[in-house]
Design brief:
The chain is of the alpha+beta class. It has 2 domains: 86 residues, Arc Repressor Mutant, subunit A (Orthogonal Bundle), CATH 1.10.10.10; 110 residues, Beta Polymerase, domain 2 (2-Layer Sandwich), CATH 3.30.460. Helix 6 links the parallel strand 4 and strand 5. Helix 1 crosses helix 3, helix 1 packs across helix 4 and helix 2 packs across helix 3. It starts with 9 loop residues before the first helix and ends with a helix.
């Protein structure tokens, strides 16, 4: 990225964010178009533009061209950290109250994610939440969970997954855990999320 390449469309940012989170995947423009609900030709054009802006890497395998996030470029990674900070502050409107409630955990956790069906559309039955924290915070976390439940501001039940940071790396090869990390919305600590993705790639 340089001073002449710093403007991005909303769809470009969606593509870059998707590929950053799906750090194990290499996808062609047709696959990305289907996943993001956009036109294939347009997706191909945007992926090539993002490659020129050094956010994506382009790789030819046989007759197909695949794209992945350019994790090796520090400026690209720092840019994603900024975008994910915005994700924390601007959740989908149907999750606004939930995100507000979950912020109570922030001073006690190192990372917080919402995953599952609630991240994709407004018709969901429960909320899946990943809390990453150290064992000495267990009492405070339990208290906050009870406060959130008692407040009744969040109508749907919340299902928590509680882990320590070290457990992330012990489970990094697990397909279900990869889905949690990659198909989630961040509500706390973009910097830590970026750091976790970097370590999981090793």
């Amino acid at each position: 990225m340089d001073a002449h390449n710093i403007q991005f469309t909303k769809i470009e940012l969606r593509i870059a964010t998707y590929l950053f989170k799906h750090y194990k995947d290499k996808l062609n423009s047709r696959q990305l178009a289907k996943l993001l609900g956009i036109n294939h030709a347009h997706a191909n054009k945007l992926c090539n533009a993002l490659t020129k802006k050094l956010l994506l890497k382009r790789e030819e395998i046989g007759h197909a061209v695949y794209f992945s996030f350019n994790h090796e470029r520090e400026l690209a990674v720092r840019f994603m950290e900024y975008l994910l900070t915005l994700e924390e502050k601007e959740p989908p409107r149907w999750l606004a109250i939930i995100f507000h409630g979950l912020k109570r955990f922030n001073e006690h956790i190192v990372l917080g994610l919402v995953f599952g069906s609630s991240t994709r559309n407004s018709k969901f039955n429960d909320v899946d939440v990943l809390l990453v924290y150290e064992k000495n915070r267990t009492k405070e976390i339990r208290r906050i969970k009870e406060e959130i439940r008692a407040s009744q501001l969040i109508e749907q039940p919340i299902r928590y997954v509680d882990i320590a940071e070290k457990d992330i790396f012990l489970n990094k090869e697990d397909k279900i855990f990869y889905t949690i990390l990659s198909e989630s919305l961040l509500f706390h600590n973009a910097k830590k999320y970026v750091e976790v993705i970097g370590k999981c790639r090793r």
